[in-house]
Amino acid sequence: MAAISTVNLAEVHSKLVGRGLSPDDAWEAALGPIRDAVPFTAEQARLVGDLAQTRLQRLSLGDRACLALGVALKAPVYTADRSWKELKVGARIHVIR
User: Fold this and answer.
1) At what angle do helices 42-50 and 61-73 cross, to 10 degrees?
2) Does an H or E element contain 8, and which?
């Protein structure tokens, strides 16, 4: 099952609109491969704040929201960002390239 935090869904949607897609097309494209858009919870917000120490690796709010969802769901996280490989946050991280 592919899941995304609503924070990250907003981020993807914004990027697609910024690249010229209509808002409707961008929304459909963002949701296409996703089975579940998971509402951002207070528990995840707490973990995002706790992960502020990872700013040394330049993790954005969106990056930390993604990691927090992985921790909350006890699910692996997939990224193309190689710097995540060294993170120890309580979620298994797979670097895809």
Assistant:
1) 120
2) helix 6-18
